[in-house]
Amino acid sequence: MPIQPPFPSRRELKICFAHVAYPMDQVFLKRGSGLTFCQVRNPEELDKVIEDTNVLVVSGLWSNHLLESASELRFIQSIGAGYDQFPLDKLRENGIRLASASGVNRNAVSEHAIAMILALSRHIHTGRDNQTAHFWRGMISDISLREDELSGKTLGIIGLGSIGSRVAKLAKAFDMQVLATKRDLSNGTNMADEVYSPDFLPTLLERSDFVVLNCPLTTDTQNIINKESLNLMKSSSYLINVARGGCVNENDLIHALNNGDIAGAGLDHFWDDPLPNNSPFWDMGNVIITPHTAGETRLYEENVIDIMLENLNRLCEGKETLINQIV
Fold this sequence. Notes:
The chain is an alpha/beta fold and 327 residues long. It contains 10 helices and 12 strands. The chain is 29% helix and 15% strand. β6, α6 and β7 form a beta-alpha-beta unit. The radius of gyration is 22 Å and the shape is elongated. The relative contact order is 0.13.
């Protein structure tokens, strides 16, 4: 890596917030930092300001061609936890630091997963459907069709990272039995009752009443939920996906839901985002859909800015280690 000049002083810093929707500038203004900043909403606006930008706070608007003009760029703070869109080797070559926003939506996503579990077990989704239809459902004789309680149920968590650990913590408050798979068993295993390597997945699926996906999308987790894994699940169990759509083989899941192989699903992400209008998922009564909003709350911008400001402090002080450092 070529020798880089010192990180710009606070007086000289020019920060660009780049996001199609999030009002990062409005939230940052309230901090009274005295730093110079701007907000862009689309690629064209970003192209115009990238040449003078020292710090870029971005996720979906990133494009590799920006490096051709980003002569002053020294630090990228990702707005999201993912960073696969960034060319890591090229950033290193250009002396550009990168940090993710990992953990920024830990509370939000874990609470969303529990909300879906509660909604499915308490039939909140069908209650809203009945409300729309002005239909008052009477008492149910068939016990298997009634609302259920979480106490004593088994929750299987695929991916016991920051989010998965909090899902486990919340589930324990409902007196659930928590099983989990985790790649690194050397730490962070105390939140669940039983924690195993990914090889334990078949047993987890067989034992769980709810299966929650919290894992990142990798070559190992792509289509981790497929025909074979769905066949291992109980016909009374539910799948909750607050990870990535690519973790689920959608055709296999559609078949399982239609065939009664599992009871239902709560889905926050799909292979195609947004979900196409002709997707069968839209019309499934045993499915709850949210539009990739599990991590999006009123505190999201504040949480990202907290991470960014701490990283700026470290960079201005010449420290090497950043929060959620990638490069």
